[in-house]
């Protein structure tokens, strides 16, 4: 028998693998519970102080006959207008029904009410002086709110499922500098950008990139990681990723191919992958460096899990952190990185 912890783990895995489906199921479940069970069963809506427009059609007609009768006897047009407006969107249709069947009223009385009261109310409504928000507008606003909430929930689930971590430039720079062991004096030369992303088996369209901007907002280039090669489908078994750095001023892209140990040792695969960049065997807690004319990217492999089957070895999970540094005009192309101050446990 499945335990509660195992059930929770299984549900969590389904949510991570198929966030859109999980969101749809959650929305339908919430709609069913909120609308049918709570709205109709446990706590149905109870009308109090309802307006005449909420009456059944025959009762609305009786109400309007009484309004017309009172107006004919008192001549109070302002009171008659207020009472007539109480019928809301059903006012005109109710008046037409009363004209067809005046009941105990003379037809002349109904026509007089139409000319002296109803026509004035209709003219005010056409000029925009008759207030009130219709039920259709409320329904439209509710649907719009549900759409916005659903879209936000989908984006959050999608971001979590893909393991992305977004920070402001100031936060990213401060955290990366602190992690790399920079002192307060050295902080100004720390990373200008930091970015972390995670690939998990099943994300067949994994392709992450981010813009690199200077402290003044100038666009300097881009960096990212994407699937290079894999086998099979649903899910694709990925055995190589391309990690790259683009420098706008250098007009070139530096690339490293991050491969599984088995793929890195396979001569046939190496020959096919080497045209895309230097091949590096992925190892947990390793650091890689990409450099261009004005930029340096320190790339840390934070997590690396591989599995094997009859098709060969492939990545199950891979977490990569980017720290981007901007070189000063006086720095040479081969600028040493902060290896001496890097966190313990990293191999270079």
Q: Summarize model confidence as the mean pLDDT.
A: 79
Helix content: 40-55%
Radius of gyration, in angstroms, nearest whole number: 35 Å
How many structurally independent domains?
3
What share of residues are in beta strands? Answer: 25-35%
Secondary-structure element order, N to C: HHHHHHHHEEEEEHHEEEE
Q: Please provide the count of β strands.
A: 9
Low-confidence stretches: 181-188, 332-348
SSE-based structural type: alpha+beta
Largest sheet: 5 strands, mixed
Distance between the termini: 48 Å
Strand order of the largest sheet: 2-3-4-5-6
Shape: elongated
Our count of helices gives 10
Task: Summarize the SSE layout with pairings.
Blueprint: H1 4-17, H2 19-42, H3 57-74, H4 77-85, H5 91-100, H6 107-126, H7 135-161, H8 169-179, E1 193-200, E2 207-213, E3 219-231, E4 237-247, E5 252-259, H9 261-265, H10 267-273, E6 278-281, E7 286-291, E8 295-309, E9 312-326
Helix pairs in contact: 1-2, 2-7, 3-4, 3-5, 4-6, 5-6
Defining key terms:
elongated, disordered C terminus, alpha+beta, 348 residues, four-stranded antiparallel beta sheet, 3 domains
Description:
With 348 residues, the chain is an alpha+beta fold. The chain has three domains: 13-46 and 134-159, no CATH class; 52-126; 163-341, no CATH class. 42% of the residues lie in helices and 25% in strands. The chain has a five-stranded mixed β-sheet. Strands 1-9-8-7 form a four-stranded antiparallel β-sheet. A hairpin with a 3-residue loop joins strand 7 and strand 8 (295-309). The radius of gyration is 35 Å and the shape is elongated. The two termini are 48 Å apart. Residues 181-188 and 332-348 have low confidence and may be disordered.
């Amino acid at each position: 028998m499945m335990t509660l912890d195992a059930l929770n783990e299984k549900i969590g895995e389904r949510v991570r693998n198929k966030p859109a489906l999980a969101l749809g199921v959650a929305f339908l479940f919430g709609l069913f519970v909120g609308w049918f069970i709570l709205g109709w069963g446990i706590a149905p809506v109870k009308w109090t102080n309802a307006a005449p427009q909420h009456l059944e059609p025959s009762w609305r007609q009786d109400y309007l006959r009484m309004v017309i009768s009172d107006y004919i006897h008192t001549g109070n047009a302002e009171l008659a207008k207020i009472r007539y407006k109480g019928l809301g969107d059903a006012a005109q249709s109710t008046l037409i029904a009363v004209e067809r069947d005046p009941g105990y009223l003379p037809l002349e009385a109904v026509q007089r009410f139409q000319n002296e009261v109803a026509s004035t109310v209709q003219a005010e409504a056409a000029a925009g002086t008759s207030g009130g928000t219709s039920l259709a507008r409320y329904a439209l606003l509710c649907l719009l709110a549900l759409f916005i909430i659903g879209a936000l929930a989908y984006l959050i689930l999608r971001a979590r499922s893909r393991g992305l971590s977004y920070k402001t430039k100031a936060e990213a720079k401060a955290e990366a500098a602190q992690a790399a062991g920079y002192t307060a004096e050295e902080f100004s030369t720390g990373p200008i950008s930091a970015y972390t992303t995670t690939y998990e088996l099943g994300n067949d369209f994994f392709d992450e990139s981010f813009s690199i901007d200077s402290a003044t907002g100038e666009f300097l280039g881009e960096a990212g990681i994407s699937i290079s090669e894999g086998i099979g489908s649903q899910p694709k078994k990925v055995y190589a990723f391309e990690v790259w750095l683009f420098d706008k001023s250098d007009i070139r892209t530096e690339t490293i191919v991050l491969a599984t140990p088995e793929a890195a040792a396979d001569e046939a695969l190496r020959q096919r992958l080497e045209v895309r960049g230097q091949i590096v065997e992925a190892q947990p807690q390793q650091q890689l460096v990409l450099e261009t004319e004005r930029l340096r990217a320190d790339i840390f492999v934070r997590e690396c899990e591989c599995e094997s089957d009859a098709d060969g070895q492939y990545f199950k999970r891979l977490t990569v952190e980017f720290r981007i540094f901007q070189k000063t005009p006086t720095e040479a192309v081969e600028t040493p990185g902060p290896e001496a101050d890097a966190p313990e446990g990293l191999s270079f």
